[in-house]
Write a structure and sequence with these properties.
two-stranded antiparallel sheet, about 70% helix, 4 helices
Length: about 150
Amino acid sequence: MKKYNIILVILMLLIAGGVFYQTKDMRDTVFGSLGAAHWPRFIAVVLLIFTVLLLIQTIFSKSSQSSPLNFKSGGIKRVFALFGILIAFGITLPILGFLLSSFLFIVVVMLVMGEKKKSWIIYSSVGITVGIYIIFDYLLKLMLPRPFFM
């Protein structure tokens, strides 16, 4: 498993570095408030912290026995499915807008993760989507993506 952890560490370092590179021309503060670069960089720093922790854990782990990675296991299949869902969310966000894309994203993720109660899926998807919308649109005064037809 050490080999896979090292590969993951390298991938996460590249992603965090990419975030910092992509935000290099953005302002961190604008007129005393947080700028566009603040949150992506914050997330990249958190990613870096967890990446370093994974690297330390991998280096100092006592297990020298490498367990094979089974790509046919249910857990790995869910990881790939969730990665595909995340890509689909990124594609549909500018087309369908935040509200519809987020609602669908949460519903599909809950189904992939094995949730069976339809009422729980609907209520929690609506609640999470509306909660995020209220926080970002009303409290933080940030404009979330609107559907292309609005």
